[in-house]
User: What shape does this take?
Amino acid sequence: MVTTSIEPTPDVAPRPPVQTTRHGGWGARIFLLIMSAIFLIPVYWLVVTAFKTPTDLAQASPSWFPRSWRWANFSDAFRAFPFGRFFINSVIITALTVIGTVISNMIVAYGFACLEWRGRDKVFYIVIATIFLPSAITLIPVFDLWGWLHLVNTWFPLIVPSFLGSAFFVFLLRQFMLQIPRDLLDAARIEGASEARVLWQIVAPISRPALAVIAIFSALGAWNDFLGPLIYLQDQKLQTLAIGLQYLRQTQPDKITTNLLMAASLMVILPVVIMFFLFQRYFIRGITLGGVK
Amino acid sequence: MATTSVKKRAPWTRKDRAALGKALLFLSPWILGTLAFTVFPLVYSIVISFARYTGLSGIKWLGVQNYTRLFSDPLLGKSALNTMWYGVFAVPIGLVIALLLALAMNRRVREVAVYRTILYLPSLIPIFAFSFIFVVLLNPGYGIINKFLSAFGVATQNYLGDPVGAKGVIIGMAQFAAGNAALIFLAGLNNVPETLYDAAKVDGANAFRRFRSITLPLLSPVILFNAINGINAALQVFIPAYIITNGGPNNSTLFYLFYLYKNAFSYAQLGYASAMAVILFLVGIALALLVFGLSRRYVHYGLEV
Amino acid sequence: MPRTALTRRRFGALAGAAVGAATLTSCASRSSSPKHISYWTTITDPTTMTAWNAMKAGFEKQNPGYHVDILPKPSLGTGDATDLITAVRGRSGPDCYLIDRYTTAQYAGMGLLENLQDRVDQEPGLRDQYLNFAWNEASYNGAAYGIPLDTDSRALFFNKAKLAAAKIDLKPFERSSGPMTVEQAVDYGLRMNKKDSKGDYTQVGFIPWQGQGFWATWCLMYGAKFFDNATCKMALTDPKMVDAYTLFQIWDKKFDFSKVDAFNATYQPPGAPPQQGTFYTGRIAMSVDGNFALPGLKQYAPKLPYGTTYLPVVKKGDPPFTWSGGFAMVMPKGPANADGGWKFIKYMTGPEGQKTYSEMTSHLPTYKSLLEDKKVIAGQEFFAEILKYSTSRPPLPVNAQLQGALDTATQAIQIGGSSPRSALNAAQQQMAPNMKQYCPFKLPSNGSFR
Assistant: This one.
């Protein structure tokens, strides 16, 4: 059986824009314009509110533009809570998570994609099944596990799991690695290369685009994680931006007015958006990897 | 790739064992992770679901009392229903919106890169920050929604103070992540060979027919993937409700996982919460089997040439 | 293909550095020096934080060498202790914790708190210094799990200017007239409602379910007991409860609940500066509130012509009524510094601590002799005086959940359109198996307030 899947090239480059008869399409354009407008509203309102003055906000009817742009909201938000500390914490946790995710999933996916062993496909079903495992069932026992290890209120519970593989990322990477020509690997093996070498010198470089994708996904996941820090970090010195903002909101509702909250949110989002624009090609290619069957 | 077909019950050869040993080495992180974060939690959850356990003092065995209590707990029913409501609306709507966006972007509108960026932008925003934005957007004092609607004569409303409104807001908010799924669909659409459409046109198939008999079948694996993602997310929806409504009003956004979280972490009823988790787990398995069963019937893996 | 930033070598270096950093930052989160005390407070507003710091200074001055670390841990709602439960289970809890006293029994019952009875026994006469109800609230099964800090009482606040503008006679609002009935109060309020052309409220005279006008006030007004001590069962469907919850149904017909909700969201949205409070700005003219509201009024609406009188009662001629709550200092399980923690708890809840706290935050002391001190109760004399009419909620080991269940019952009527009886039935159904876990259980035998 021959299947035409995505061409087994190492790169998941989208096809060059084919000039076909299907260009144009005003209906599509209008739909996209409307949807874009809708999708921009929250972002627009975030930015506008982040610059409003308290008096501006107290108006009974909100204005589409700030009456005056108040940059001091940002420095005020900075002073209202330890933004710098939270930011650095988030960066460190995210970086470690990315490292763990890339290393561990690459190794495991290799075992499922590039090694032939009996029962492989059956075991892989277990991997797929665990994608479905609701985190709910792990919430309580895993918390107790970290409690027994006296590691609650440290970063270990947030970081260590990423070093132990993730079913979803293994799934993605395996799909990608399956497209690597067998001959390439077998040739290396015949020349006497160990599996570790095949992984490190052939599969890893070819899989770089896919690895970049899981790096990006895991980075987003770690940066945006809410439940983990909420449960595991009590010490303010250890907290991340996600919990920091919520903290800001709860502890000082009288000091932290809506404009400051929006200013702080904007500062949380900005690094992600900048990363997106820097690596946009990767992002877009990467997300589509999920579509590879 | 040809599948490795092993004859049933063939004896294990030494080579088989060697290959397995090698594989185990590579799988070891996953095995360790699965033992610690899947197998152990599963066993532990099942065990303590039969006890009164606070994690702070001793265990008191209750038999199936936690499970019988589940069925008489009005809040549990409500939270399960809320989650179902969310899933029934959010998942299909999300798929349709994402598919429509992808189809539109696939029309090769010249400025498609701009739309792509804009439509993906909300997916980048952390869910907690997006929740904050929605609180502001919807507020009659600060937000634009009421101002916009009042132009059409709609009276000022606190949508977050209304059970249907609040649930609708959380479902609606989830749709802003459609950009992600849309891009996956778009990649799937890119893989549909142009020649197929041309051939169909020659045969006189109209646009709808072409969509039904070419696009949809070829896209089915991607739809499956996005559906699985969607269902998985729906079962565990929690954070927006935690931040925006704190489960209210009238517990209309008290989703299953939120109630479980409360029982476990606010009331330290670990046994009861574990019973909830076990049930959720079973439901998750049932849904997974259902989706895979459907996929076997409807999903086409590639074109047979 | 763009080059990935992570070359192998850099990758290795980064990984090493990062793991090192994680190890460094993750240890030493809890010190166990005998002179270091950690204290978590759930009340974190600026006024109270100032008071905590003053009390900490007083303690450190009296006990040289000691150092108290105050950590703000805002709770998500009344009686919420999620942070503490999580921390104690993770073995990273503090030495002392400020708890909503009403929930002490619940948290003691689940094993979250240290039993302080042995320590109390070594201080003869300590218990007699405190208001009896407050001590009971901080106990579970006859043992002290916390020492009371403050208390409070509730009254009807009204805006004289708004009453005058609506040509309402001020006479019934004078304390000498005694309490008015609930019906009267609500009717005065309705006369002050104002709507704009779209039909949206711009002013609401009195929102009786708002603020301190939640179920506790109206249930206690009817004399509901919440619990049947003889059978160890929740009594949420008791006729007195139904009477109280019928009020919510009556009010729902007199107001449009969703309109009032929209009014609140418009004029006092979450994240609004406090001076925008609707009572301060005159958008509402009457409110049920407590002495703890006084500092805000002074700070944000110093010129507001407001007065306070007795809470409304069921029928004309009923004696005045109010109810009291407050906070307690407790010691979570497994403290790093139990002796230091106890020392701090004793100071905070003792005469010096309570004096500072009451004066700075406008709360009433639970230390009885301080209630006679004019300086301590300055500005809140009326609230101290009505303590003689006061009552309190029973200290049950399920109170944190009861709070949620009865809030839900209120919303079921206001939003879900339930009948009072079916709303309370649902609450009873939810709470019964919960309470059953703690039976046999008896309320403290001496139930008097003082």
About this structure: DSSP finds 17 helices and 18 strands in chain C. The radius of gyration of chain C is 24 Å. Confidence is low (pLDDT under 50) at residues 1-15, 17-29 of chain C. Chain C touches chain A at residues 1-2, 4, 6, 8, 11, 14-15, 18-19, 21-22, 25-27, 29-30, 44-46, 71-74, 76, 83, 86-87, 89-92, 266, 269-274, 276 (CB under 8 Å).
